[in-house]
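May I ask for whichever protein you like with its backbone structure tokens?
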Amino acid sequence: MNRSIRFTSIFTLLLVLVLLINLTIIQAFSREKYAENPLNKRAFIEMKQQPRGQISAGGQILAESFQDENGFYQRRYPTDPMAFGPVEGYISDIYGAAGIEASYNNVLNGTDPAQSLSGIWDDLLGKEQVGANVELTLNPQVQNLAYSQLANAGYEGAVVAIRPSSGEILAMASTPSFNPQDIVDPNVAEQAWENYNAEPGNPLLNHATQETLPPGSTFKVVTTLAGLKAGFSPDSQLTGAKNITLPNTNTTLENYGGEVCAGQQTVTLATAFQYSCNTAFVQMGIEAGADNFRQAADAFGVSDTYDLGIPMASGTIGDIPDDAALGQSAIGQRDVAMSVLQNAVVAATVANGGKRMAPHIVSKVVGRDLNTIKEIKPKELNQALTPEEASTLTDLMRLSEQHTAGYAGQNIASKTGTAEHGEDSRNSNPHAWYIAFVPDADVAVAVVVKNGGDRGQAATGGSVAAPIGRAVLQAAQGAA
């Protein structure tokens, strides 16, 4: 072979090799940079040429695709979008995706590996390729009631109802809320986005999972577990004094209203829990010790996050450098912070005999042929407390419910909280909390109404949050 021809052939082969290597790098390692780049109009057009799967709950369609006059598929949210918006999220040409629409995007658009075989088969048969459907655990009746209880009163806050035995979330309401249809409609999207971001209540935030707040006296459930681990019992004697001085400080903490606990200078743990006496829990928390306190918080998953398909913030008990910090933390103040979902898990764990189940909001993924592709099974995370400890806490929470405003003989175990916050905490409008469950029914609930709702400084967990929690428990039992 002529030398020049041989040189040209080798050079050509090298060019082909370089081209193949470059294509491999682009296809295998730069997909996100090019194919999935939002500026890639080809990917955008392809996405618009096939329908996404549906999002549904309880047989009701929450999100679906429809074909417009130009043949492109658009998204709509036909069922109670304000109630479901923070969970279902949105997928917008302008603002991207959020909620279930974001986390299950590959499932909904049909690119998930579990659906790849079905997609290839559809291509061979010339069928329109569609995504799979996502079914949620939410019960529409309970979800709408929870949302309306907050929204109709003009409250900022959140509600979570959960099934203790399985971790299924029956309701997750957040206010203020948003309508995802406003964000996906190009005719109003920019103005809606500007308005939502300008609102002081952060409506685009899921307040049930993304916001953590001081839990106040609801955290006494956790402190009580620490006390039980340290040898305390419902009959243990504690101070009922109207105030207590934190160790090595001049700082005092007092009972609600500055009152002596149940009119007694010394009380049992059972009485202290029923009347939610701060001074008794400061004493018990310090005597139980920081290690037991941390272990109790860890057992209940206070700092855990869960793979829900929606964003979630981690709770905290903060640093506990000394007994003074421990005393403040024992009543759910100082640096202690939890989301409503995390507090619902606390109630659900007690209700479930001490077993903490992983909460989940997606029930299953179903293909276009109605076959189940994936089903979320109940998952036990840990035995947070013994059955005996759970039984003791249930009895104590029953006593607490009997002392809560509005009690009318219901078989409910609960704990309220009235959480001061801010720089001038004593003069703040407190967050009103209520966590509860029905011992003979498989449902637990957590409620927070921020900044006192419409009661201001006079707000308490019993007067503001408890009525909402009881209504949700009743609806959940009726819908079971």
